[in-house]
Amino acid sequence: MTLQVPQPVLSGSKALVVGIANENSIAWGCAKAFRELGADVAVTYLNEKSLPYVQPLAAELESPLFLPLDVSAPEQLEAVFAAIEREWGRLDILVHSIAWAPKDDLQGGLLNSSAEGFAKAIDVSCHSFIRMAKLAAPLMKDGGTMFAMSYYGANRVVPNYNVMGPVKAALEASCRYLAYELGPQRIRVHAMSPGPLKTRAASGLKDFDLLLTEAAQRAPLGELVDIMDVGFACAYLATPYARRISGETVYVDGGVHIMA
Ligand SMILES: NC(=O)c1ccc[n+]([C@@H]2O[C@H](COP(=O)([O-])OP(=O)(O)OC[C@H]3O[C@@H](n4cnc5c(N)ncnc54)[C@H](O)[C@@H]3O)[C@@H](O)[C@H]2O)c1
Questions:
Q1: Nearest Cα to 40, choosing from 10, 18, 3?
Q2: Would you say 142 and 188 are in contact if contact means Cβ atoms under 8 Å apart?
Q3: What does the alpha-carbon distance between residue 202 and residue 135 come to, in Å, rounded to a whole number?
């Protein structure tokens, strides 16, 4: 059967990308890749503090929608999807590229994590994706693709990843269950698992530079990944070429995860 594939491959697609903090953000790589391949891209910014960093990037994308979103504020999340409904009447691609944990819980080891800190980390870094999926699904009228950013620390112990390990494990499992529940609506859900990237979120992890050095040394492909590698991998999975792929954890890590 011949696939009907537009040229460029995402032209006409409507995407929402959540998680751009600055030009190093993985979400920025996703937004740029989608735009380059023809999609219209809506973006959000966390708060007034992040606004000046994200605004020029939204302008570069010619984003028709640029809205505040702190996922801890339910009314803001609802407002984002209401704006998408008004502007586009539909959605094809959703990217959740956010994570957060209180500093003490992030840096103190899992054993020392507090119930409150663990719950906050899960809420912002995992359950917010479920909330987004619930609001996005009715807008994905012709099917669609949803992505959440995970990390290898979900599956194997990565020193200093601490509370984020179990949180990312929950995120990957959530992607699989959402893929199952949304499959009948032709909505595909993937967890992306990028290798280490020097971003603001990563700067909260102790000895992160060691992770970078080790990843470059151990990767069969012999080098680190960049944010565009993650963006183009998502872009491919959002095209009709990948229409029967769902529920995957997709490693964009130069092959590090296959090594013993
Ligand atoms: N950098 C890495 O090495 C790496 C590797 C694998 C996965 N990841 C994951 O990629 C995702 C993006 O992180 P990044 O590395 O691009 O860093 P980043 O700092 O650029 O992005 C993190 C984003 O989370 C947002 N955020 C935090 N709390 C929020 C809230 N309450 N509401 C809305 N947004 C909130 C921030 O505003 C920021 O835009 C995260 O899920 C991270 O765990 C990162």
A1: 10
A2: no
A3: 28
Coil, strand or helix at 187 = strand
| Residue 218 CB-half CA count within 13 A | 15
Q: State the pLDDT confidence band at 171, using cuts at 50, 70 and 90.
A: very high
Helices 128-136 + 74-87 axis angle, to 10? 30
Closest C-alpha among 79, 93, 174 to residue 139: 93
Q: Give residue 242's pLDDT.
A: 98
Check residue 162 and give its pLDDT.
97
- 151 annotated active-site: yes
Strands 40-45 and 66-68, how do they pair?
Answer: parallel
Q: What lines the ligand 1 site, CB under 6 Å?
A: 19-21, 24-27, 46, 50, 69-72, 97-100, 124, 149, 151, 194, 196-197, 199-202
Query: Is residue 176 pLDDT above 80, yes or no?
Result: yes
Structure tokens at 199: 């971003």
Query: What is the C-alpha radius of gyration for the chain, rounded to an integer number of angstroms?
Result: 17
Return the percentage of the chain with pLDDT > 90, whole number: 98
Specify the DSSP class assigned to residue 127.
I
Find out whether the peptide bond into 56 is cis, omega within 30 degrees of 0.
no
In the annotation, is 152 catalytic? no
| 31, 196, 211, 215 from 153: Cα distances, Å | 25, 11, 11, 13
Q: How far apart are CA 125 and CA 140, in angstroms?
A: 23
Q: pLDDT tens across 178-227, in order?
A: 999 999 999 999 999 999 999 999 999 999 999 999 999 999 999 999 99
